[in-house]
Amino acid sequence: MIKKEMIAMLLAGGQGSRLGVLTANVAKPAVSFGGKYRIIDFPLSNCINSGVDTVGVLTQYQPLRLNTHIGIGIPWDLDKNIGGVSILPPYEKSTSSEWYTGTANAIYQNLQYMEYYNPEYVLILGGDHIYKMDYELMLDFHKANNADITLACISVPMEEANRFGVVITDDSNQILEFEEKPENPRSNLASMGIYIFSWKVLREALITLKNQSACDFGKHIIPYCHEKGDRVFAYEYNGYWKDVGTLGSYWESNMELIDLIPVFNLYEEFWKIYTKSDRITPQYIAADAVVEKAILGEACEIYGEIRNSVIGSDVIIEKGAVIRDSIIMSGTVIKSGTTVDKSIIAENCVIGSDCRLGVGEEAPNKYKPDIYKFGLVTIGENSVIPPGVTIGKNTAIWGVTIPEDYPDKVLASGESIMKAGED
Fold first, then answer.
1. Alpha helices in 188-246 (DSSP H)
2. Closest Cα to residue 202, out of 131, 255, 149, 137?
3. HSE-up of 205 (CA within 13 Å, CB side)?
4. DSSP single-letter state for residue 43
5. 8 Å CB contact between 29 and 66
6. Are 254 and 325 within 8 A, CB to CB?
7. pLDDT in tens, 46-56
8. Cα–Cα distance measured from residue 294 to residue 296, given in angstroms and rounded to the nearest whole number
9. Which of 23, 149, 168, 202 is deepest in the core (most CB within 10 A)?
């Protein structure tokens, strides 16, 4: 029988609906990040850097881009005969056929996969956070405390603690109480959604709670284990960790990469971030182009001006175009004379000439005010913007738009155009 000390189960099926049109056709973990990466590259790189060589990636929502990106795991050295990376979509069983309905339900439906490796420990990860963590150190902590479950936790500002599941611990870091998004938190130690389970404890809990609807780790599995007396500990993590679940946090974490001394460094030799990279064409920066504080992807062509922005691969910025404080994803073309301010433009878009994006006063978005905010312009993949239009703040566009979509050549702040359809 195959025996692995620890395997990882990476939950990558989420829709990421708070990213709006960016995740309309792509799972959140497959969204571009930092010019050349995708969000899932970070937990995958953490696994291989931590010596975890068996990773099950659980996919569900819009998995195509994610599956193509991961392939057989070559960029992360996860193309192995025994172990390596396995894509685990929902599948039809002999007794039932159902989608994953919660984080723990997704893991339960892959019990057979875990049993095949018969691990001593199972590492549960989310596929949508930006961070570097040595899971081996967390496992050492788990063993040293003779723990049944260890939760990775991070201190958050007290005023933000009500957004998280928070834990109350004793002096030895053993967890005494859980509070799931409490109104008046008594602790600011937040769960990061990263767990190490001793395999027998996890297996028993998943089987016991298998009929729990939308079974979830934070709401069901961990409280159940805690109540029956399992030893549950908090492993405090002090590094950089960002949940890029909103357009604001996604934009902010990309902008942090460009700082002179970035809080999150993509270029450390001892902790590399690996990704699939097909393009080998060099970048081209024209003699009269201006580039100041920017990340530039492979094969991009820069003839205009870029300041404080993250530019993906195969992007073309034409002469006279100005990009400021923005994220431009791969394959997009910004035509001449266009000015782009504080925008997120997804893959394979064409922004016509002499446009102005991100201008004027802010107004709440009328379509989805809780998503399209932060003063951003958000444009979904494969969109086309006609020449000569002005686009305000807190706006969203998705699809091939034409001049008639813009009364007086203007999309006012707070307005949206959805031509590609969004459920």
1. 199-208, 222-227
2. 149
3. 27
4. H
5. yes
6. no
7. 999 999 999 99
8. 6
9. 202
| Residue found by looking up tokens 């994953």 in the block | 100
- Tokens at 208, concatenated: 């016991």
Report residue 233 as tokens: 């500990």
E strand or H helix that includes residue 316: strand 316-317
Please give the radius of gyration of the chain, using alpha carbons only, rounded to the nearest integer.
23
Element spanning 255, H or E: helix 247-256
User: Any idea which residue has 């010596």 for tokens?
Assistant: 51
Mean pLDDT of the chain: 90
How large a percentage of the chain has pLDDT more than 70?
92
* Contact partners, residue 366, CB within 8 Å, separation at least 6: 414, 415, 416
Measured between its terminal Cα atoms, the distance across the chain in Å is: 46
3-state SS class at 248: helix
pTM: 0.91
Separation of alpha carbons 215 and 107, rounded Å: 10
Q: What are phi and psi of 154, to 5 degrees?
A: -140, 145
In whole angstroms, what is the distance from residue 44 CA to residue 127 CA? 8
Measure the CA–CA gap between 101 and 115, rounded to whole angstroms. 21
Q: How far apart are CA 140 and CA 119, in angstroms?
A: 16
Q: CB of 245 within 8 A of CB of 16?
A: yes
- What one-letter code names the amino acid at 276? K
The three state secondary structure string of 94-139 is CCCCCCCCCHHHHHHCCHHHHHHHCCCEEEEEECCEEECCCHHHHH
Tell me the pLDDT tens digit for each residue of 270-304: 788 888 876 668 899 999 999 999 999 999 999 99
C-beta separation of 56 from 86 below 8 A: yes
CA distance 57 to 257: 27
